[in-house]
Amino acid sequence: MTLTVTNLILRAGLLFSLGVFFCLVLNLLQIQRNFIHFPREFFDSIKSAWWVAPSCGTAAAIIGLLYPCLDHKLGEPHRYKREWSSVMRCVAVFVGINHASAKIDFANNLQLSLSLAGMSIALWWLFDRSRSGFGLGVSIAVLATFITQLLVYQGVYRYTSPDFLYVRSWLPCIFFSGGITMGNIGRQLAIYDYVDDSPTCSARKEHTD
């Protein structure tokens, strides 16, 4: 199998753009609900949190490229619901999970966290169901939560009413579902990037459940 550099760059660019777009939309939801607060001096110094969107775009590109690469390395190609309509539904569910975290009033943070955890697992079950996808999603959630905690600790921004050290306890659920979503987008974009002379392999790639 060979992977062209041009296709790799195009995929990375598209994933980066999608990551920036999702970041702007989802952060707007959180800011409107007053979950995220940037200190005034932070805006005064650089006028806006310019680094957030590019950082999310870079993370989205890495995740979207890593999922199909990991599938290939493990020899376990992901074939469950490999069509764009399924990917779009996955994106819609992911946005819905974020909308629920920002708009629905839960009795307490524990109820919110458990509800989002259930929805995140359901997203993985409906649109992924792979062990590699689940493991990578958990790793992304842990790493992203740790980085977020460091940023909050440094005073870059803060979450109102944090209940898990410096951050909200439901953040890992958002990161997990985001990782699964970007992974599915990356997998779908990569479906034609690998070329193999074997007709059996080609037939497998065209198969969708």
Provide a concise account of the structure shown.
The protein has helices at residues 5-32, 40-46, 52-74, 84-103, 109-127, 131-153, 171-189, 199-206; strands at residues 2-3, 36-37, 158-159, 194-195. Helix content is 70%, strand content 4%. The chain starts with a strand and ends with a helix.
Could you explain how this protein is built, in words?
With 209 residues, the chain is mainly alpha-helical. It has one domain. The protein is built from eight helices and four strands, in the order βαβαααααβαβα. The protein has helices spanning 5-32, 40-46, 52-74, 84-103, 109-127, 131-153, 171-189, 199-206, and strands at 2-3, 36-37, 158-159, 194-195. The protein has a two-stranded antiparallel sheet. It has a two-stranded antiparallel ribbon with strand order 2-3. Helix 1 (5-32) packs across helix 3 (52-74), helix 3 (52-74) crosses helix 7 (171-189) and helix 4 (84-103) packs antiparallel against helix 5. The longest helix has 28 residues, at 5-32. The protein is globular, with a radius of gyration of 18 Å.
